[in-house]
Amino acid sequence: MKNSIKKSAVFFGLFVATFSWAISSNVQAATPVEMYDNVWRLINTKYVDQTNNEQNWAKWRHKYDKMLQTDEDAYVAIDTMVASLNDPYTKFLNPKEFQEETSSIKGSLKGIGIQIGMKDGKLMVIAPIEDTPAEKAGLLADDEILAINGKSTKGITVDKAADQIRGEEGTQVTLLIKRKGVEEPKSYTITRAEIEIKSVTQKVPTDVKIPDDICYIRLSSFISRNASKEVREIILNNPDKKSFILDLRSNPGGLLSNAIYISDMFLNGGDIVATVDRDGYKETQKASNALLTTKPLVVLLNKGSASASEIFSGAMKDNKRAVLVGTQSFGKGLVQEINKLPNNSGINITIQKYLTPNGTDIHKKGITPDVVVELTDEQIKNKDDAQLKKAIEIAHELQTGSYVVSK
């Protein structure tokens, strides 16, 4: 078999988009049997648990040889084999899923720039992405999409709708939109473009006002390669700010490299994270000389903060560099590698676990903030962000020296 791993990419994962970058590439075509065997071999040599969930891994190698006639046959068989690991983060990606994942990492997609979803059986615009054709055309959150290119969306799935709305740059798509409070639907013809996925913003998601002396940065994911560059630009463009608030709430993770680069911006030496592979080999990532600011830092966390978010937060906490505010983080302490397979599919494989600088394994435990602040349903409904308010209070205390990070 000619399949070979040519280059690698490492990922952290909570869901479809929580990793660190390293793509294993296999450019040659393969038969369904070869593709299945390729996945078996990758897991056999790379999976972090050498017992493969305490099972005889060899039993899977030729289990389906005579049944695999098409790629689809191989996909089903691979899914079945991978499921035996009982690891939600080791998963097979068909070509469409793999393309979506790599597009997210590259930080761009082709389309009009809207997030869509189903609500009460209706296809809705969740939100237009800032500075995209959809926003410029006037689409709004809660717009109902009645038709795409003249075809009714009744009974359509989100995936099929997304496929129809996406397309090559310069081509057009026509959406029939029903807006709340407007009697007649309106047709919007929008030209598709390359959409940059921005994971960094300074817009506050609630009604809390940020004081002029604090720089607020919201990082929604570590996925895009552009994330660390965007954070760096904000820090450098705000030299007069006296402290920083980095909001990682509901950030599911992303590239390990981003977690390291952004940690580097705030650390003057010290460890960032350690990874441990299947053989027990431990490798520690240390802060370099990339420090951008020594000004006080407050980090916001919640139960949706996972993976790379926890790596950054753990580095800040263990190095006494920041005050963590909010609620317990998710607790995802595993590292995935994405492997590109023949026929444009892929497999995410858990290859390592990680430890915070103090040697803490946070998997299934999470990181406890220095200052725990819960949000009530009423506060969430009224956009009364008690966590952000507390972060602002602590940022000011750090500026004056009246708050001391616990030793």
Provide structural commentary.
The chain is of the alpha+beta class. It folds into 3 domains: 9-105, 2-Layer Sandwich (Transcription Regulator spoIIAA), CATH 3.30.750.44; 108-196, Pdz3 Domain, CATH 2.30.42.10; 200-333 and 352-400, 2-enoyl-CoA Hydratase, Chain A, domain 1 (Alpha-Beta Complex), CATH 3.90.226. The protein has 10 helices and 21 strands. The protein has helices at residues 32-46, 71-83, 95-106, 133-137, 158-165, 227-236, 256-266, 308-318, 377-381, 386-400; strands at 9-12, 23-24, 91-93, 108-111, 114-119, 122-128, 144-148, 151-152, 172-178, 186-191, 193-196, 200-201, 214-219, 243-247, 271-277, 282-286, 297-301, 323-326, 334-340, 346-355, 371-372. The radius of gyration is 23 Å and the shape is flat. The model is unreliable at 1-27 (pLDDT under 50).
The average pLDDT is 88
Main CATH class of the largest domain: Alpha Beta
First-last Cα distance:
56 Å
CATH architecture of the largest domain: Alpha-Beta Complex
Number of helical segments? 10
Quick gist of this model?
This protein has 407 residues and is an alpha+beta fold. It contains ten helices and 21 strands. Strands 1, 2, 3, 15, 16, 19 and 20 form a seven-stranded mixed sheet that branches. Strands 12-13-14-17-18-21 form a six-stranded mixed sheet, sandwiched between helices.
